[in-house]
From TrEMBL:
Protein name (database record): Nuclear transport factor 2 family protein
Keyword entries, A-Z: Signal
Record's signal peptide: 1-25
InterPro entries documented for this protein: NTF2-like_dom_sf (IPR032710), SnoaL-like (IPR037401)
Residue stretches making up the SnoaL-like domain: 34-149
Positions in coiled-coil regions: none
């Protein structure tokens, strides 16, 4: 009986070892890969490459939020807004100055914030979320903002309130 028991134990151990050898190693998410995706996306806009730019999004229901309070678009809506800019041969040019990237525990979601240098907005900030689709990272949500220094926030708030009054009375 002990010979049978020994063979059974050896068989179980062999199966466990064989199974662990054939298991796929978990790939750690890479900040460099996510950063390369974001850099390529910004470059596609700078080159006014419409198809390439929009290929970086996770799908037509992804969200792009612009600097104006009215600018919350699904990618389908954002394409309509952006198309004339791209057709003119110049969209926008955002150059990352600093970027921070983080990952979910399961490695399937990344979020980031980036400081941007832009010719038309001046210093700007982008924040967003990327999701892993198969082996590629795709942008699911992006929020572009203009950081306002606290020293002038009161003045800007008053200007925003006045602008909102003007648009609501029309």
């Amino acid at each position: 009986m002990s010979n049978y028991k020994n063979r059974w134990i050896v068989g179980v151990v062999a199966l466990v070892l064989l199974g662990s050898c054939s298991a796929q190693p978990e790939v750690k998410p890479s900040k460099q890969k996510v950063s390369a995706i974001l850099n390529g996306w910004h470059q596609a806009a700078a080159q006014a490459n419409f198809d390439q730019y929009f290929s970086y999004f996770s799908g037509d229901s992804a969200i792009f939020m612009g600097t104006d309070a009215t600018e919350r678009w699904t990618i389908t809506e954002f394409k309509e807004y952006a198309k004339p800019h791209f057709e003119r041969g110049r969209a926008w040019n955002f150059t990352p100055v600093e970027r921070h990237i983080y990952f979910s525990n399961d490695g399937a979601t990344a979020w980031f914030d980036e400081s941007l240098d832009t010719p038309n907005l001046g210093p700007a900030r982008g924040t967003g979320t990327l999701v892993k689709q198969d082996t590629t990272w795709k942008i699911a949500h992006y929020n572009l903002s203009i950081p306002i220094p606290n020293a002038i926030a009161d003045t800007v708030i008053k200007q925003v309130e006045e602008a909102l009054k003007d648009t609501s009375s029309k």
